Amino acid sequence: MKHTASVVALALGLGWAGTAFAQDKAEVIHWWTSGGESAAVKVFADMYTKGGGTWVDTAIAGGANARTAAINRTVAGTPPTMMQFNTGKQFDELVENNLLNDVDAVAAEMKWKDKIPGPILAATTRNGKMFAVPVNIHGQNWLFFNTEVLKKLGAEEPKTFDDLLVVLEKAKAAGLIPLAFSGQKTWERGLFNTVMVGVGGPKLWMSVYGDKDPKALKSPEFKQVAETFAKLRNYVDAGAPGRNWNDATALVIQGKAAGQIMGDWAKGEFIAANQTAGKEYGCVVLSKAGGGYLMGGDVFAFPKTKDAAQQKQQIVLAKMLLDPATQVEFNKKKGSIPVRTDVDTSSMDICAQKGAKMAADPAQQAPAMELLTAPAVTGAVEDVISSYWNTPAQTVDQFADKFAAALKTL
Amino acid sequence: MLAIRPRLASRLAAWVALSPALAVLVVVYIGCTTWTIWISMTASRMLPSSNFVGLRQYEALFANERWTVSVSNLVIFGTMFMIASLALGFLLAVAIDQRVRAENLLRSIFLYPFSMSFVVTGLVWQWVLNPTFGIERIGKNLGFADFKFDWIVRQDMVIYCLVFAAVWHAAGLVMAIMLAGLRGIDEDIWKAARVDGLPTWRVYVSIVVPMMGASFATASVLMATSVVRLYDLSVAMTNGGPGIASEVPAKFVMDHLFERQNIGLATAAATSMLITVAAVVGPFLYWQSRRRAAAGAH
Q: Which of B187, B189, B177 is nearest to B215 (CA)?
């Protein structure tokens, strides 16, 4: 009898072990394919593997391609274990159609809600429940400048856009490219948004993109934003249209241009060129009224599945993503800052430290555009901004009218 | 009675053999087209929804500046590209048809651009036309300080850069088709024309060109399809810029379908393209069938 029982137990045990082994597996769809990005995602993969799981990496180049693949599989009923989105509204319809598992229980257990900055938390929460795990914060409105060039021009580090215009004028007089610019729609929108929050302030920002208030577009503040943006046209070179953002960063690195307005992912280029933040290059968020650090980033969402083992893995993954040590390691490689405000960032570079300080300060926090507007609206606004930037004959009033129409996209 | 049976059987066999193709036609073409038209009348964003909104997507579409720019770009591009590539291709074919030496080599050189994809073509011309390191830079380095060639970054001229690259790409193919047509012209016609003392250009214009209707038709159809599906050249060369100056309809559809999660508007644009193509092709087919019927009546 004893024998039989132990044989059964052994068989059961082996069975358990067997299934557990086979099912401790997670397929992850993401679009982190460039050098620095894949090094960053490897931090997650290694941590998960260390915990005994098998990480199946499905990297698909191009955000839209990766999202389309993941969404198609989720709708078809064969979802991955977790999938990447940008922080914001990209996964709204998956929640509405009941295709995602929420992570509210884990969030409560791990007390995440006290540690994640308000705008980011709000962007992952639908109907009071957290539906995605944010993994990083990318600051979108940085000015990166070449310290050597600024010294040669006899200019101080600019604090506001008015300061910046003075520096740009000096650079132009010295025969340099004042502002390194990449004239593609996304970056034209990025530049405009930086001007909007830097000149118009966070209040204008929220009433335009948050409340979508047409009156805000007719305000003197918006007019000033549009005019400042238009002035910047005088400080970009003829080769700007169509240029890639990293080619623009290279101009700053080589000292051919004074500075570039870009998100903190540009740091990757400076690091690759062996430059150190605070030495060869500097970084600052231009702001007049105080406040307005535009925060975006990436999240992972967990598609609904009937497979209990997969559900278990989703929870294991969620906890791993927000583990403090993982957060610091991942974000060092990614160039972003940790999404938890309670982790120690003293080992990160000074730009990241500046960013982390702003991200932890509610007075400085501001949600990035895609946290407030659906992709369809973001795209429509992007077309309007791009058309304005490239058409000097367009008046501020015409621009404001088109802007209002784009915000009302069906 | 007996004679009918085999005919019935062979008919049945024909239908059975045809059924896979028929199924593909019905499901893939007609089915998907119908579905696209249906979705274009809903408020679908990322996922298809059945929230019917009538023609509001079409109102939004035609109020959208980017769409109207895309459509007018397609008209400019289509007209110029077809005329230029047909003319250039024909002239190249005539030149080669003069029994020049190294004909094979020249033919390969002229046809070579066609072996490249539009993406590569676009990228190469983007570099050549870029004002900071392309032709303009070469001109300045040669000592012409005022030399300017910045069409690719000018909103009013960028579409002609697209035409230029596309003609460079397609002219070789047109040449090959035209050359085949020229070689099909009976030698006796040339002899007769020479006896009559007609100048060569006159023979080409009045006799040869009218005889090459089939070659022109083939080349035109090929060029026309590449006009409608123009997408990759715009993406690789300018990505629609500067601003929205070189946007094209197919790019509008693709961007809204995926990146912008607005499949309602994307399908409305796709349907509009379908209607436009049908409006051009429909009367043409009708005219052809009338002509064929008239020819049969003789």
A: B177
